[in-house]
Design brief:
single chain, alpha/beta, 3-stranded antiparallel β-sheet, binds inosinic acid, binds magnesium ion
Amino acid sequence: MQDYREFLAEVLIPADRLQQRIQELGAEISRDYEGQDLMLICILRGGVMFLTDLMRAITVPHTVDFMAISSYGAGVRQTSGQVRISLDLSSSVEGRNVMLVEDIIDSGHTIASVLELLSARRPQSLKVCTLLDKAERREAHVPIDYYGFVIPNKFVFGYGLDLDEYYRNLPFIGVVQAEKFLHTT
Ligand code: IMP
Ligand code: MG
């Protein structure tokens, strides 16, 4: 795999702005959940970087769990709305205050399906925290309770988000130089 710079059009959100915003989100969540139990659920794999920084910024006691999903009948860069759980949670959400921690909400179909699946398991409350919100692409109605940044309709990578599974480790969010990346796939 080539160096990420081959595909980077621009840095959209530098590392220090990500970290600063995550501190703010952590403080807000800590205020809102003061005295309450909290369970964070990370959807693998894109949400991992955000989860680990966010949980360090949250001061109320909480647990974390992970799930992975795969979508049906869609290409790599779009989802159809139909999702299947490929790795389920290891703990019960029943009666818990659950918060889904996502990297990015695009069409909204993925998170809408996950919300539907989880609400059937009777959590006490169910909220959504996403680092990035590609708002103009929204097709499904999704209530977003906490978000880091609203971003334009561009394909981004880094900080958990991948380009064909690579470059999730970058500490910033970058915009893909589309022509270059499409030639390799
Ligand atoms: P949605 O169902 O359209 O909201 O798709 C959400 C999923 O698509 C995210 O969890 C990402 O895995 C992926 N995705 C959407 N936009 C981007 C992007 O710009 N970069 C990387 N992954 C993306
Ligand atoms: Mg994802």
